[in-house]
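Batch manifest, entry 17 of 40.
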Amino acid sequence: MSEIRFRYKPKLTIFILAVVFFGVCAGLMARAAIINDRGLVLNRIIDMSTQSATIFYWVITAASLGFVVMGLAALLKSRSSNREIILTDSSITAPKNLFSKVDLTVSFDSVTDFHVQSISKTRLLNIEYVGGKLSIPDNMLPSKSEFDELLAQFKLRLNG
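Output type: structure tokens
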């Protein structure tokens, strides 16, 4: 067998939509905080005063802005990055995560378990090895079929 490489890059549309969505949320929550003149009752359980409700709106605004910043960072990172997943006869090398500059190389001899996990419509290849865990989400590869190919090649080489 030979070395196989897969591009590891986030899909731009997902991050652009997330940035727009959370940007709108931040704007609406900031507006609510600025013009707030009454309390807030959440689910008939939490009763907030006017001041507490305003603080709550600002906290939601800050969280939304945090997601905007993370989305923009991911967009910038994906534009300047040419990261890859590399399968050889004896190991798999993949980025630790989207934001890390570290690539992990996991020898097939050190793999203790692996499984595919589904969360909503996203599948993750979770590889447990002596000393840690590596997760590869399908949305970081160019297509679902490339994720299927990665999974098939990983299984073949692991058992091979």
